[in-house]
Every structure is written in structure tokens, then in C-alpha cells.
Amino acid sequence: MFTVLFSFFTWITIKMSGNKERTFIMVKPDGVQRGLVGEIIKRFEAKGFKLVGIKMKQASEELLKKHYEELAGKPFFGGLIKYMLSGPVVPMVWEGLNVVKTGRVMLGETNPADSKPGTIRGDLCIQVGRNIIHGSDSVETAKREIGLWFEDKELSDWAPAQQSWVYED
């Protein structure tokens, strides 16, 4: 009996902890200027993900260079930083089961021309240089990006009333 209970509670813990995966999503300056923040939030909420952190911020050059450090050697890096400095951004942290992978699918391809209809970029963008949104590409990257943009005290740990309607027990 103990083994059965242990297995059951281990299964519940593993299943529930999967719901706690977090990703970093940021509406870029063009998305903010075009008034698309609400549309993007709406899509993530409608999917069933939980918003645990959000703010509007004029990012510093130093922060952006840290955020995009893996692209530093690319020819477009300078233009990317200039573009990201051109206006406020809206960084967010979303939580849920497979939120990193699902969030990337919801965003669409980096180049909007390659994005399927129904994705954020497929529906709302035309050019890669104005693709309105950034999303973490792995759980490890999400942790790094969340740490760059948010302090722990800025993230909320809460349970939405509809959680049992989104996730199986």
C-alpha cells in the first residue's frame, strides 16, 4: 500500500511540477507601438497559460546586449540593438505545462513569411526585422532571460480559479 501511495504522490508531484514550467516572452518595440500587447496576452491566456510577471520597460543597451549575447557576432547585431532601443518593450513571464515549446509554436517562425496563419507572427507581421515578439527557445534559456529581466520578488506564485479546467488532476 505504501508503494502505491508513494507512486501516486510521485506521479501527482511530477505532473503538477510540469505545470510550473516558465518561459520568457517579450513584446518588442514595434508590437508595443502597434498596440498588440493585449492581443498577445489574450492568446496566451486563452491557451490556458498563467501570467506570473509583466512590466513595461525602456531597456538599456547593456541589458539588451546581455539578452542577445549569442548573436553578438552576427552582422545584424548592431541594428537589432538599435531597433530594441527604439521604444519600450513588455517583458512577461508565463507559466504552464510545456509553455516554452508551445509558446514558440504560438509565436511562429522568426521570419513572419515562413509563419503559419494562426500564429502571432503569421497573423500580425510581415518582415523579420519587425517580428513584434521574442520567446525563449529552451527551458535553460528561459531561466537565463527571466533572471535578466525580473527579480524573484516581481514574479507572482498564484493559482487561477480555472486551473482544474485547464489541467487534468
Automatic annotation (TrEMBL):
Active-site feature positions: H134
Residues that, per the record, bind ATP: K28, F76, R104, T110, R121, N131
PROSITE patterns per UniProt: NDPK, NDPK_LIKE
Reaction(s) the record says it catalyses: a 2'-deoxyribonucleoside 5'-diphosphate + ATP = a 2'-deoxyribonucleoside 5'-triphosphate + ADP
EC number(s) on file: 2.7.4.6
SUPFAM superfamilies the record matches: Nucleoside diphosphate kinase, NDK
Molecular function terms, GO-annotated: ATP binding; nucleoside diphosphate kinase activity
Limits of the Nucleoside diphosphate kinase-like domain: 20-157
Cofactor section: Mg(2+)
Family, similarity comment: Belongs to the NDK family.
UniProt protein name: Nucleoside diphosphate kinase
Name of the coding gene: 107359753
